[in-house]
User: Fold these one by one.
Assistant:
Number 1:
Amino acid sequence: MSTLRMTGDLRRQLILSAAKRCFARHGFAGTTTKSVAAAAAISEGLLFKHFPTKSALYAEILAEECEADPALHRLLELAPSTETLVILIREMVRHFQGVADAPDQQEAQRLRLMVTSHLDDGEFARLIYEKIGKLIGSIFTASLARAIETGDASRIGREPLNLFWFAHHTVVMATLAGLPAVPCLTYGNAADLERQLCEFILRGIGLNENAIVAQLDREWTPAPALKLDAEGG
């Protein structure tokens, strides 16, 4: 790798580090590209060479946080299978069901930003969808294909990735209904809701009842991350 490229990569990381501090302190709405550039000790023009908009900068930070999550990494390393497909859906449901109760409310704020983006120019939402699709889409479609091959699922439609988005949208909308201090809609017991959402989605993407019963109650325990010593052993 050339020195020039390394310098560019380093500058990009410095910009991201500065942006994280700004967003953490002032939120998305209160942060400007000018303030990020100042925090990174660069010109706003140079910032735009790396990140053309504030939405692009924020989306990159969120993508980095996801990619750095050890549990997500271990999930994405699972072999494509019916079991992996069920784990993906169950973990997605659990993640979003926990958004409203998270003490720092960061995920709730990001979800609100996503909704606002849909009603505005859509840029932030498009960027996030693109990054989510690249991160999770392939393991979802590969696992669904494997489930169909083994007879655990029936083929639904011509675009398997659409089924992932239908599942994602279902969970997001259910979460949005519970975000206000006075929920827009009360579904009942949280544990029952998780189960019902999972069953609804799994049936919707084509899994048969036998596969759902066999897999849904199995708990997935992520393997602990490997700890390497200083010599890499």
Number 2:
Amino acid sequence: MPAENVEIEPRPTEHADAGEGHVCGCQHDESEIVLDVRTIPHAIRHATVRGAFGAIPVGGTMVLIAPHRPMPLLAELEADAGGALTVEFLVEEPSECHVRLTRTAPAVA
């Protein structure tokens, strides 16, 4: 699959109309990585997200845009992160879901 079909982009620093943030209105930070998986084939979607989240440092965030609530994927990410994950739903619509994923510090044993 050509890499140009994968959309990972930092959010714009300025709203196109009013200079008040970014254009989608889903309340994510302008410095966050946004991964829109709707264009990624389903067969590799989970692996793509897991790999991208694995590159996020402690304290870092990524906004995932999916065509539905990605509950099985979130369970996989939680297992990968060993519990060091915070999930915040920003947009929940029937055909679109925006989820902020934050890597937290692992619990000290």
